[in-house]
Amino acid sequence: MTADKPCVLLVEDEPAQREVLRYNLGAEGYDVTMAENGDDALILMEEVMPDLVLLDWMLPGVSGIEICRRLKTRKKTKNIPVIMLSAKSEEVDRVRGLETGADDYVVKPFSVGELMARIRTQLRRTRPAAIGQQLEFEDIMLDGESHRVTRSGSDVKLGPTEFRLLATLMEKPGRVWSREQLLDRVWGRDVYVDTRTVDVHVGRLRKALCRQGGSDPLRTVRGTGYALG
Question: Which domains does the chain have, with CATH numbers?
């Protein structure tokens, strides 16, 4: 998983369909992790913790609808958007998929362009900065597309790591992030960095945000981690 890129878990057993989706997701700038069946998907969910799951209904082993049900009943994964892909086009099937917890339901065959738009819609809720959206918190503004940060209208100069750190904190103001969670989101799961590195970069971010005055917007939660506000 690469830091700052949204990660999509693609669960699809049909090789040609899987390859088409993998290619298009990559072209959109997403990290893609793939599973061919339900059992592998559940294992990968524990290892990867994706930002979105693209889930085929009809799978070998555990069905897509059962995977969706399990994800939505677990505290750790219930807020991860799930888009169900299915050849079942009847209204009763759509209703069943949505009632199981799917955030969206797309009938095969589908337009790849429309599917990518639906993915962006879901990620706009959960990873807005990563897909180029503007975020605001009090007098701080972050533009994900231009990678520009201002405070009270003045530019704030940040390095790439501090920018990703601020974007993560601004996506969920008030949420307390542990150092391990920040390492996964900002540095990536495949990079080994000591947790003390987080403290160093939070210190740099604090200094940059307060350089021209203003109160410190970052909160240290003793024994846990950091939050914005």
Answer: 7-127 (3.40.50.2300), 130-228 (1.10.10.10)
